[in-house]
Structure formats: C-alpha cells, structure tokens
Amino acid sequence: MDRRSFLTSAVAAAGIAAVPTRVFAQVAGTTPRDRQILAVAQREVARAGNALWMRDVAAIADFSTHSSQPRFHFANLENGTVDSYLVAHGQGSDHEHDGWLKTFSNQNGSNATSRGAYATWEWYEGKYGVSVRLGGLDPDNSEAFDRAIVLHHADYATKEHVLEYGKLGRSNGCFAMSPADFSQALLRLSGGRLIYADRLEIA
Questions:
Q1: The dihedral of CA 176, 80, 43, 193: what is its sign?
Q2: Single pTM value for the model
Q3: Residue 67 near residue 167, CB atoms below 8 Å
Q4: What is the distance between the alpha carbons of residues 76 and 82, in angstroms, rounded to a whole number?
Q5: How many Å apart are CA 45 and CA 38, to the nearest integer?
Q6: What mean pLDDT do residues 34-49 have?
Q7: Which residues have C-beta within 8 Å of that of residue 169, sequence separation ≥ 6?
Q8: In whole angstroms, what is the distance from residue 53 CA to residue 21 CA?
Q9: What is the predicted pLDDT for the residue at 127?
Q10: Given its phi and psi angles, is residue 174 left (phi above 0), alpha (psi -120 to 50 degrees) or beta?
Q11: Nearest-CA neighbor of 134 among 1, 2, 3?
C-alpha cells in the first residue's frame, strides 16, 4: 500500500472508530491566554469532527511566538487546563535561523512547517527513535504524510539549546520537542488526537 492509499484508508478508519463527541468542559483556564488556547482547541476539535478518534486533549502550536518560548500548548478539554512546551519549526520557514517562523509551506522538499489541523496516528521507529505519524486534515497541510511530517524528539529542541543559542534548532517541517517533553506527547497526544498549527498571536 502506498502512502496516499494509507492516508485515505486511515482517515476513513478514523471516521468509523471515532468515539462519540464528549461534552467539553467550560472554557476555564487560569489566565486569558489559557482561555484563548482552550477556545481554539474546542473550535478546531469540533471542526475536525470524525477525523479524530479522541477529543479529550488537543495540542495548539502558536508559531507567532519565538522558538525560545513555550508555544506548543496541550489543552485538556475535559478539565480546562493548559500545559505549554517548546517545539521547533521547519528550516524552510526560517531561512535566517533567527527563531521566528516567517512562512508556511505544504510543498515537498520545502522543509517548512505547514499550518492547519493534524490527526495523530500510530507510533513508529524512525530516525529520531519513537515518533508519531501525522495526517494533515486541511488543504494547507494535505501533504504531511507524503512529506513524513511527524512528531518526534530532538536534542536541538531543549531548554539547554535555548540557553546556549537563544533559540531552538530547526526541523525539516516536523514538530520536534525535547526528549523529556516528548514523553508527555506520547502519553497525552497519541491515538487520533488533534494538533493545530498556525500563527495565532495568542497573548
């Protein structure tokens, strides 16, 4: 089975396996920023519909924020809490390597980050060890599977890297986290949950 056939069948399977929609917690959050993140997560989980298997936790990547700052937000839609982590963007989105994402791209070979909604799929053993395959759900990230855009850990996505260089390193378009934080992603984001990426200007 080729990648495109796998993508089609996986999305179809997601619709069949989707759990009933849960009643989301009220947008709680302890700060205005958290409430913004939870509102985006609720909106995007609802928009993704049956492409998701699980709707309890979603990740919101706000790429309007510098890479030295926690900008990968895990929004728990059941208890209204938010945890934030570092995440790298693609080198094709930041040619100057100054830590700011300037552009998105869905093109093969661009090494850029793509905006839009993703569904997390299965774990696999890749270049960076255990990684999570992603399916792009929007026209702006529809090539994610063919481009091998995944969630993985990397040493260039750590707090130590920020302390030394003032920014994270860059991926080839993947969502790269520190090894320590990635264990939380495996625990809380795997299995058909949402990742949504854009320049959100969350204050």
A1: positive
A2: 0.86
A3: yes
A4: 6
A5: 10
A6: 97
A7: 88, 154, 156, 157, 161, 176
A8: 10
A9: 87
A10: beta
A11: 3
